[in-house]
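Why this split exists: single-chain examples teach little about how molecules sit against one another. For that reason, every record in the complexes split bundles all components of an assembly together and asks for one structure covering all of them. Below is a record exactly as it appears in the raw files.
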Amino acid sequence: MSSLKVLVPIKRVIDYTVKIRVLPGGKGVDTNVKHAMNPFDEIAIEAAVQLKEAKKASEVIAVSVGGAKSVETLRTALAMGADKAVHVETDADVQPLEVAKLLRAVADKEQPQVVILGKQAIDDDSAQTGQMLAGLLGWSQATFASKIEVEGDSLKVTREIDGGLETVRAKVPAVLTTDLRLNTPRFATLPNIMKAKKKPLAKLTPKDLGVDITPRLEILEVAEPPKRSGGRKVESVDDLIDKLKNEAKVI
Amino acid sequence: MFSIRAASTAREALRGAIGRNQVRLFGSSEVVNWSHGLTDEQIEYQSMAKKFADAEFAPNMRAWDQTELSPQETIRKAGGLGFGAIYCSPAFGGTGLGHLDASIIFEALATGCVSTTALLYLHNMCAWVLDNFGKQPLKERILPEMASLQKMASYCLTEPNSGSDAASITTKAVKRDGYYILNGSKAFISGAGDNELYFVFARTSGHLGWRGISCFLVEKGTPGLSFGAKEKKMGWNSQSTRAVIFEDCAVPEGNLIGEEGRGFLIAMSALTGGRLNVSSASLGGAQAAIDASFSHVQNRKQFGVPLSHFQNTQFRLVDMAAALHSARLVVRSAADSLDKKEPSAKTYSAIAKIVATERCYEICDQALQLFGGYGYLKDYPVEQYLRDLRVHRILGGTNEVMRGIVAKEFFEPAPVQAKVPA
């Protein structure tokens, strides 16, 4: 099997180095800070571009759902080696299920054989979009990939799971999500950043794709994690259980 | 099943995996944002250069300084990214960007290591010389290797007895049988001994002063080319600085760059761009020092509160930020002027060098003060930025020479005073 068409959804998120500040009111965080491509999505783009370089893929399409500034993220993807970009423009707060529906619509248009996403976005940590997309498309899925190999009409994927590593064979068409150790994303080269300007970038809206993006989840509260307090030594197992139950409230 | 892996924030996993707990508020706040005023593309270059600096330079900055290691392999990685000949034309592998783009890139790289960035910007200046003044066959042979950083270049003008009085150089080049025979020596040459290419200014005619000077490319391995002992320096320790010695060193005719007698003008025009590179690296070092001290004052507590609560601390950092921002604007404006080939670009470039190198050194000094005793330790990066930036007030034409250049715009030269070279 040759010439896989690969779709890579990417998300513009707050840069991982920024110290997050919860806004007064407790409904959100300060977003007037530095943003970047979600690091797991960078890994996804790198994986797709590597498939193209190994001649297992013929085309890499980057897609992003978001406001006007998502174009910056798409350009970075083009500079890393994606062939074209699709911007689904909306300023609304889009949640994982709605994103998955939009991506399904884009996949219907672009007809990829493989979709590679980051395993989760570092802002909401939902870790759902890839899985839901696979469900909506009715495709096989292999998540938390730390290794991807093309074998005939399937993808052999090594997954990082709690118990260790699991290897699955996913028949194409398939949805994959990337884990941290899959690869080290390349730096875009200066010449490639310059060339990216000339690569096609299509714009669509949720309306164009016929998707209702009304959120179904409501954010009740956003708060900082509790400040770290000192540790304590316990005298016995009973004491430990008592503290875990009544103080830490984790059992 | 409740999976701890999925539930733990990816952010923490990344911090651990990448190992740096950077709080880069200055770069990301809207008030003193180093991306302010840049085009989308320039922001991309900046972001990529910064990523590269964070990944490849910053973790090694201290070790390179203390072990005096020259990081050749890391620099070759930079070549693949287009950092080798940033403002040279694409015809022979140059990236084809301008001086403003280069300024943004060198500033970003310098946040990771000023000394290693200096190796790159000096090399870039030499690549520009070859691109602008070299003959086709020489360009064809050498430029692609310079662009990819396969071969690195040193700029050889200064001599033991000719520093600011650059036109007084005495290294001779005598033409004979299709070669120029070079005799003399150069001092304080960055990268000497390690680099493969040497852009050498030598006297080809009996003319004293600037009219008799020509520019040559001398390749390592040429018989008669040797190097002095490695200098022990205050900073810039990730590069070797040595004397370059010519003893009947025969350089092929084809290695002459430009015409005979044009060398000095070549040297000076190269330095106009080179000064902007120096200034840009100063900006990067100061940015890194501010970021580090900003982070420190949030964490360090005295008298029961973080240092950042004290008005003195706040006002110092504001002054540092204001100085950096204004220096940055002067440098970028001068770079833009040079890109537009404005006649006044040279003057603005000199002004930019004065302002940037002096303000940024002061910023590092203030940053060290904010760190208190810790700032004096080599465990913390600020003292290295300070040491690495100190030489920027000297090389590329001292700040005194810069003042001389600008003074010429306002004052007639006094009759007895030696003419400052054009």
